[in-house]
Amino acid sequence: MALVVTSFSLPAAGLQAQPLPENFAGCQGGCDAGDRNLDAESEDLARGTRYYNRGLKKLERREFTKAAKNFQKAVDTIPTNAAYNYMAGSSFYFAGDHEAAKIYLTKALAAEGDEAIEPGQREIAEGILRKIAQE
User: Which of 72, 60, 126, 132 is nearest to 96 (CA)?
Assistant: First the structure.
């Protein structure tokens, strides 16, 4: 079954490009591109953020498969990041890969507390999963 997307828009909240960790004032010279002195966790965050931002650019161009692949790379970098999982799942859904969408959206919905996705995103993810289940 082919998926037809008649409209797609980025919600205003939660889908803005994220600043890279090395651009924060707290880096104080050790985070610049020439002489990076970040620990492994900061490196992963920087890498994941770059993939996330690239994914957003692809979404703006309605390049859903390319967006999904970038969000997938962000998840590969930080698997527990609910926002990365949500964006990967949503993008895979619009790209027509419903199995991948189901995996990533389920992970996004499992996050709780401060790591949880926004209520609007939760509603969208649950709606997508219902549609997939009806197929």
Answer: 132
